[in-house]
Amino acid sequence: MIELQRVEKALDEIRPYLQADGGDVELVDVDEEGVVRVMLTGACGGCPMSQMTLANGVEAALRDQIPEVKRVEAVSDWSR
User: Fold this and answer.
1) Domain range summary for the chain, segments of one domain joined by +
2) pLDDT, tens digit, 9 for 90 and up, residues 8-55
3) Contact 70, 33 (CB under 8 A)
4) Among 10, 17, 43, 49, which residue is least crowded by beta carbons within 10 Å?
């Protein structure tokens, strides 16, 4: 299973880019199958480009640093 600390460390490296645009990312869960669930917050939460940010930014960075990550899913506040 992927350690939460590894995911948080990887997210910390991409967080400044999201924060520069008024957004952020919050780790929600990592399951035993390698699925990481995050919540995009701030400007990223309601942005029409959020799916591209998730796939090309967050997921790409996580998979690059943690090969065990199979995919990254965004969750909304109400589905946590």
Assistant:
1) 4-79
2) 999 999 999 999 999 999 999 999 999 999 999 999 888 888 989 999
3) yes
4) 49
Could you tell me where the DSSP H helices lie in 27-77? 50-52, 60-65
Contacts of 2 (CB under 8 A, 6+ apart): 30, 34, 36, 66, 68, 69
Q: Which CATH fold would you assign to the domain 4-79?
A: GMP Synthetase; Chain A, domain 3 (3.30.300)
Residue 17 exposed, middle or buried by CB count within 10 Å (0-12, 13-18, 19+): middle
pLDDT (mean) for 47-74: 94
